[in-house]
Each structure stands twice: as structure tokens, then as C-alpha cells.
Amino acid sequence: MALTAAGLAVAAVLALPLVFLLIEAHGAGAATVGNLIFRRLTADLLWNTVRLTVVVTAACAVIGTATAWCVERTNLPGRRVWAVLVVVPLAIPDFVVSFGWASLWTWVHGFEGAVVVMTLAVYPLVYLPVAASLRAADPGQEEVARSLGVGRARTFLRITLGQARGAILGGCLLVALVLLAEYGAFEILGYQTFTTEIFTEFSVSFSVPAACALSLVLILLSLLVLGGEGMLRGKGRISRSGPLAARQMPPHRLGRATLPALAGFVALTVLALGVPVGSSIYWMVARSSHAILGVSLMSSALHTGLYAAAAGALDTVAALPIALLAIRHAGRLRYLLERSTYLVLAVPGVVTAFALSYFSERYGGGFLYQTAPLLVVCYAIMFFPLALVGVKASLARAPVSLDEIARSLGQRRLAVLWRVTLRLAGPGLVAAFCLVFLSVVTELTATLLLIPTGVQTLATQFWAYEQNLSYGQAAPFALVMIAVAAIPSYVLGRFFDRTAHS
Amino acid sequence: MTQLVVTGLHKAFGDHPVLTGVDLEVPAGELTAILGPSGSGKTTLLRVLAGFERADAGTVTIGDVVVDGPGVHVAPERRQIGYVPQEGSLFPHLTVAANIGFGLPARQRRGPVIAELLEAVGLAGLGKRYPHQLSGGQQQRVALARALAIRPKIVLLDEPFASLDAHLRASVRADVQRLLAEAGITGILVTHDQDEALSTADRVAVLRHGRIAQCAAPQDLYDRPADADIARFIGDANLIDGVIDTDTVDTILGKLPVEPACLPALSSDKATVLIRPEQVELAGPGPREGRELAGHVVAYGYHGHDAVIHVRPDLDAAAPTIIVRTLGGQQLPPGSPVVLRARGPVLAWPPD
User: Taking the model in full, what pTM does it have?
Assistant: First the structure.
């Protein structure tokens, strides 16, 4: 009962931005909102947002799947090294990739620039799940297909892609949601989408009804993406059909395709990793002025760390009741509760930040506006689904049967929690914390809207310098963010790999 | 002395009843098997006894303490019941020694108790290993040692041998029997394997439709099942129609004497008659006694120590086949003509 109550409370907080938005839209009146939605600007934004989302998602699907297949199922030379190199770009914030390209070449601009930059920044979101599913799927199915007289190419299409289908769709969903929510990268590239426009309406023009109306359309788009993914996913299962131990299949021989494949991997690494990192290093070396930079770096890194740690801890604790309900107690209400928290995915950070800040200002008497707690709560809401994934994975490692055994051996509930559950779930809880921590470190949009006055984080300080065209000053902040995010991401990747395997 | 008494135990999940009035008495120091087909509620019964599930109605008494009853529910950790689940469920983050010592007070965990238990289950020297470094049989032994370490009054074993292969099963089973007997601990073994129940336990309780249908020593259960259903469940059975004639029954295998204990329950002259396969023999070429049945072999299963033959009676092609168990003997390919003869006395019940 206490668990259900806690779960409901968490779900209620998560729903706050959406509720605020609906209240505001209701207050503004249907006619006003209608006028704000049905105008030329909306159509332009819709065209910009949708075409970019479609093109980049498709490109990521192709690149992510192809690289995953090469790394997991072929004899590509240096597979272990590539497996790391193709993932690292995920640790580079999208707005840093954007900065890396746009600061070097002026042609990286508008739609084409956005396609190049965003594809290179987010394709690992497809690579990671596809690689994991190819690793977990039964390679014996391919052999069976071949023995049934199905050719190589059709086996790849029908079996291999079929096994990875759910993972590809899941990756595409993440890509599309990231694109819908992205602000910084598009602002640098001068590309206008719903998110950049909402940001401008709210923080520059202070037009709340307009920001509100556009937010509703954006959320609708996100819901369409979520619903579409759910429909396409279908009911098929990709798991192994039997409990038999995994058997290694000899990798496919690339043969004459080896050189082109290697060239592809080299090019991808240079473009996705080399350009942003190289560009940042170039600007730092060429233009940096060392005065006061050290102090400013320390101070902003400290604030970034504090906010990220607070949000990580808050999310890990908040995810516990929902994850416990989802894993240990079946039931329709609990299932719905868990699913409903995923609605957060449909609310981009800019909307969450805008809703929280506007309402705290208007109805909270400005009490919390631009304070650290509000910012932390905003982060916690935005990244809750990440924490939930981690906490669920960790609780799955501590099955109820072990709790029961421990109790039958004479241990009280608290002792069981300490000696069994937390020991087993601990690493996963740390992983959930880290996931949120990393996301906060590289978060820009909501931070810009909600950061307490006079405080800078790594991301906002980078942004301030970048907008001033002080590339030399901005670059060190970019490099620190990359360093902070890259190493733990690698460790996290290893953790979730092992979870998937055991 | 009775160690465990269960009366009128009910348990339902939602509107799906699982236990519908279980009554059971388990004598101290014996191993009792609870035998039932999958889905009969065996595991639920065990989980209620362990205190993991709460019964809807009924009482459970351990020794002279009521642990489940109206307004009473003693927590699992205060029941002193050892539990050995099907998969062993060892704590993956602890060594074998730490697993065994888990339920002991902190100062005893490093004492000689652990080494003694390891020795007892035949795993001396493996205390520093982790569960994933052990074979399935070794894991089960550790799980048993872990349960025994707390000196429980009762040990519950939930199909502990099901995941082991045949050879290993026999040796782990023998160890369990020996260890429980040595320590004088009451054991309750849940299984769906009738061979296992009959060969391992001192008493067997048949769980059917959420109740105990019969509880008896293995041989009594086999020789005197309470009804045709139990007869079919415990061992191979020929259940054929018969007509009662005072203290005998007329069947296609001739007139056979009826076990006197069955007679009072037979209200009409129609009956279902149990003839065990080993009660039927192949008649030799000698003189006929007028109660033989001629038939043809439809299947012949050779098992080394014996052979099981399915015979279709010549009289009636629609009649069920008769199962015969013989000790070795000649090879009888399908189609071979045979003559069967049954030996009484037989059990008989009113037809379903």
C-alpha cells in the first residue's frame, strides 16, 4: 500500500509539466490557442521539424544498424576497438558537435548542416540497442534459415534484421525524441524547429500563450512518434526459443568488402569524433586566453556536479517504488502507472522547464523561480525514464525468491534489504544514478531557462562564450564536458551489457 | 509425535482457488512427500507453510505453536523452517561458506559449523567458491546445507531434484534422506514425480484439486489407492470394467477375488477394477484354467530389467489395451499372439 502511494506520488510529480500546460492552455482560451496554432509559423516549424526528424532518423537507422552488424557479426579487423569508438560520440553533447562543425566551416548551416551534425551526434542511439540485440539473439536461427534453402541476402533481411527489428525501432524512437527536443545544436546552425521557437517565444519574447500553444503541438508530435513505435513494434518476441546455452557462430567473412567497410568506419570516426574533439582542441590552442579561465572552469564544474548529483539521487530514489511495483507486483494499475511515467518522454525538456518556471513564477509567488531546487526537480522529471530503466535492471538482479530464502533463514526485513537486496541491486542503482548524472552534465536547454542568477554550469558557460563567438574560451568547457561524460559512459555500457547477458 | 498439523487450509489468487481445504499431519522426524500433478497447488502449499504466502483460511501448527490461524501469521524468519527451492537460489554475491552461514549469528559464521556442514554434504574444501562456479548438483547441496545450518524444525524441499540429471538426482536424493535422518529433522518434499515420492519418502500425500486426496506410506498408497484416479496417478494401472458377484468380480480377464475392504463401498454390481501390470502374466503353453484372455501385442517396451507389453484383446477391438509387465523373457514384436492371465485379489470401486 505504501509502495502504491509512493508510486502514485511520483507519477503525479512527473505529470506536473503536462498538467500546467493544459491549465495554461485552458486559461488562454480555445480561440487564442487555436489562432496561435493555426498560422503560417506553425506550418513552417512543422515542415522543418518533421523533415529533419525523418531524414536523420532514417540515416541513423542505416548507419547504426550497419555498424552494429559489422561489429557483432563479421570478421571486420579491430572489432573491439571499433565497438568503443563508434559509441563514444554519444558522450559528446549535440551542441558541442554542432559547435565543432559550424565554427570551422560556414557551409554547415540550415537543413543540410542539421542533418550532418545530428546524424553524427545521435546514431549511437541506434547502434547500442541493435548491437546488444544482435549479441543476445540466437545466431543458430540464421543457420536454420540457410538450411531451409533461404539465400544469404534474404536470410539477412528476414532473420537478422527481424531479430534486431525491435532494437532498431527502439533506437529510432530515441533519435526522433532527441531531435524533437534539441535546442542548442539547431540554434548554432540557425535551423528553426518547434523547440527553438518555444525557447525564443518564452525567454526572449515572453509570449507565454504562444510558447504554450507550440508546446502542445510538439507534445502531440512526440506522442505520435511514441505511438507509432509501439504499433510498429508488434507483439513478436526476439528472444531465444530455448534455454540452451549461447553458442558462438563463426562470423561472416567480409572478403572483398573488408577494405570499404574499414574505410567507412575510419570516416565515421573522423567525422563523428575527430571533428568535434579536434575542433575544440584547435580553438583552445589557437585562441584561448588563460586568465580567469581556471577559476571559472572550477566553479562551473562544481555547480554542474552538484546539480547532477542531486538530480541523480532524487531520480534513483523516486524510481524505486515504480520499479518495485513493475517488477515485483503484477497488476493492471501498476502496469499503467509504470507506463504512464514514460509519458515524460513525450515532453521535451524545453517544455518541462518552461512549464515549471512559468508556474513557479505565477502561482508560487516566484518563490522557487530560478532556484537550484526547481532546476534539480526539472532535471529529475526530464531524466526519470533513464533512471527507471537502470533501477528496473538492477532490481531484476535481486529476485524476490532470494529475499524469501533470506527470511526463512531467520533474517528480518531490514537485514534482508541490507544483506541481500542492496548488495545485488547496488551496482545497478549506481548505474541509474550515473545515467542521470551524465545527462544533466550535458543538458543545456532547461538549464538556460532555470539556472539561478549569477551561477554558471559547464554547459551554460560554454554557451555564453559560444554565443559571443569566443570560441577559444568556449572550447575548454566543451572538452571538460566530453571528458566527464565519456569515461563513465564506457563503464555504464559495460554494466548494461553484462546485465543483458546474465 | 506430530510435528506439523494443517487443517482446512484455503488459498486463492484473485478468483482462482488453489488450495481448497488441505488437511495434513506430518509425523516428526519423517520425510513426507507431497505428490501432485503440476498446477495442483503443491508449491503454494509449501509457500504458505514457509510463511511467504498468507492463507485465506485454516490453521498451520508447528510443534505446539500455531503459526497461521485466525488473526495469527508468524513471519517467515520466526518459523524455523528451512526452505530449499527448485533452483537452489543461492545468494550469487556470497561464497559457498557465506551462503551456508547466512542464517547464523555473526560470530558463528566463521566457526567450525560451516566446515562440518560442507563436509556433511560432500563439498569439503569448496567454501571459498562462488555459486556460479558450482555444478547444479553442488548448488543443491549448498542450498540444503544452508537450510540445515539454522537447525530448523522442518525442512521444505520444493522439487529440489527436478533440474538435475537422472544420475545426479539419485545421489543428491540419497544424501538428502541421509542428512535429514541423521539430524532427525522433519522433511516435506514436494514433487510431481511419483517414482521419486515412492522411493524417497516415508509417507506420501497426494494433492489433488487443492486437497489431500490420500496420505499413506508408499506401499499402502500403491497397493490400496483410495480411488481409481489415484491408482492411475500412482504407477501404471489397468482400469477395466467388471461385474460384482458377492466377493468376486467378473472381467475380461476372468473372475477375480475382490479385496474385502473394497466391498462395502460397492453399491451396485458394476465396478471399475484395478489390475496392476505386474498382476498380469503371459500364460505358458500349459493347461488353461478358463480365465485366460487371448490378444495381440501392439507395443513392446524393453527396459532391461523388465519389459512392458501393451496387448489388445482379440474379443473386442475397441476395448482398452492391457498393460503387462514381465521380467525380461522373450522378445515379442507387435502382432505376436499372446495369452494373458491375471492374479487377484484386485481392488474395485463404483464406476465414475
Answer: 0.74
